[in-house]
């Protein structure tokens, strides 16, 4: 694989190959996308704008104006449409240029790419492709409307998102780094765009679900408490990820206390993971029998469809 540079720094081989996985990626916290505001987000080695149209629906589009390449995120929202700061060209929610103030005829190529976009679990998601291959990631064993949910921006990781997601089937890692006394499932169900498994021992349940290559969710029951978690990230470039996590508990009079306990638990796991993830030079090295599910995950990732982002 070819050596790549990020911000002028030598970073070794690109683990992703050509393009990025065709997945649903979280680009922003939903609460951060306020009506009338534009967010500029570095995403998939390019840049996008995130905003809400006149109906309040989130939109994710290429940030580069097709006129001269101005960054649309420094523009304005006017009547639910983006107005470029440089020459005031305006673009609607499907990316069509609808106005040029000089009165010139609008060229057919005056368009910006609009990503398939969704809002779920307190996050705004964008799909890398013209048409989604599968549904937005979900948390197994529940629906969002049944939970009290918190979504958090964790920060930047120095690793591709699929490397972090490998933790979802790295049961050796769960026992060693996190001291979680769980056993590996006998089998995992590998589909075209997901991996799922279930572990039940006495009062302990772990129902895990990987969606795409960048989202791991689980329903965990420990000591009579149901906990719901989703960990996901979006590539900034081939070796950096903007990471998010979502936690949820069932609605009830003690849900606030349970959510606080779950937040502490999840943040402890992340605090333990990140010093390793942010310093590792990932490679699929020498594996052992205990890595059987991890090995299958790596095969799944290697076969997953990829694409260059349409806005690049």
Structure characterization notes:
The protein is mainly beta. It folds into two domains: about 100 residues, Rieske Iron-sulfur Protein; about 160 residues, Naphthalene 1,2-dioxygenase Alpha Subunit, Chain A, domain 1. Helix content is about 15%, strand content about 40%. It contains four helices and 22 strands. Strands 15-21-20-19-18-17-16 form a seven-stranded antiparallel beta sheet. The longest helix has 23 residues.
| CATH A-level architecture of the largest domain | Alpha-Beta Complex
CATH superfamily annotation of the largest domain: Naphthalene 1,2-dioxygenase Alpha Subunit, Chain A, domain 1
CATH class of the largest domain: Alpha Beta
Largest sheet: 7 strands, antiparallel
CATH topology of the largest domain: Naphthalene 1,2-dioxygenase Alpha Subunit, Chain A, domain 1
Sketch the topology as an H/E string, one letter per element.
EEEEEEEEEEEEEEEHHEEEEEEHHE
Number of helices: 4
Number of strands: 22
Give a concise summary.
15% of the residues lie in helices and 38% in strands.
Comma- or semicolon-separated keywords:
Rieske Iron-sulfur Protein, mainly beta, disordered N terminus, 38% strand, 7-stranded antiparallel β-sheet, 4-stranded antiparallel β-sheet, 15% helix, Naphthalene 1,2-dioxygenase Alpha Subunit, Chain A, domain 1, 312 residues
